[in-house]
Amino acid sequence: MSIKKRFIIASILAFVLPLVLIFLVSVGVGAAAVINAPQELTDKIFFRMSEIDRDIAEESVRPGGTFFKYIMIWLVAVFAILVGTLFGTVFFLSRRIVPPLSELKKAAEKITEGNLDFEVLHSNVAEVNELCVAFDDMRKRLKASVNERLVSERERNQMMANISHDLRTPITSIKGYVEGLRDGVAATEEMRDKYLNTIYIKASAMEKMVEQMSDLSELELGKMRFDFKVEDGGGFVEDILDEFRSDLDDETTLDYSPPIGRIKLVMDREKLRRVFANILGNAVKYREKGRPLKIGVTAEIKDRGLYVIVRDNGKGIPQEDINRVFDTFYRSDPARSEVKGHGLGLAISKQIVERHHGKIWLKSEENIGTEVYIYLPEYKEEHKV
Ligand code: ATP
Ligand code: MG
User: Is the pTM of this model over 0.85?
Assistant: First the structure.
């Protein structure tokens, strides 16, 4: 029942009920007085109106008079009726409103104390119930946002732990090799070259990671500068693959199926080159041991854009990890793979492709292979570069 209805009923009760009760009490007390009073007195007062004996009538209502106690009874009854209906009305109005409101007060206190694991009671007064529902909704949202904050804090801590670990490991080994050189452990020219080479490789890996980190934060903060130019899509993919081919071993084949026709794309060549370098690099890194690696690249003009699909026959990605490989620092089952990586390549690639208004996603099956899809929209004359 709504508060409005409740007020209407309460107002009716507050007026009508006392009137009816007072009427009934008056009739009852009056009748009792008449019945119990001496016949002669009632005759004089009630039945011979024209000859009312004023003195007798006045006398009968004074203290000690015949009707005095009935008047007192009537007054007490009227008083009781007025007080009773007043309290009754207040009780009727507040019974369904006050308890949920005090519940809400308690709930607000709990939230202030940081407790969000409770449920706010509902009320059958419509407006109060709406308030309870809105309050509970607010509690749920607050809880979700607190949980989100906790998750992102946890992820941040995990990220810090990853960064420290990924940097500490090469630093420790660089220190070890430098000490080896300083203390003369690397006695021969050959050993010294080997040590220096290892130091160079470790330092380069650290440099790559720091660069990736700074790329990622620049991308996330929207501070990375893009040098967009209009280029031929198919030609660009061909150039990248030519560059990449020279690094492949004899166990790897790379096939390219170019698009039919030409398509103009707006792109930052260098940034997109990094995207493809990571995807092709992943195909090589996550190849299945003992199986010749086959990489197939298809470029197709469709849906007013260019699709580039990079397929490999490598280890593949477990289904439960597929949606997470684009997350920062996510590496699918790192223990399973002894391959080096920081889990940043795809996260950076995604941001770069999205800055080109494109999309990137992948399909994969464990032990069969992976297909990475990139869609880049076509350049239109009205687009500003
Ligand atoms: P880096 O930051 O050096 O690129 P990474 O290669 O581990 O490190 P991503 O390129 O972001 O990071 O890839 C994330 C994860 O996705 C990889 O660790 C790997 O588990 C999985 N993955 C990506 N591409 C492939 C692929 N072609 N085959 C199998 N697994 C892949
Ligand atoms: Mg990678």
Answer: no
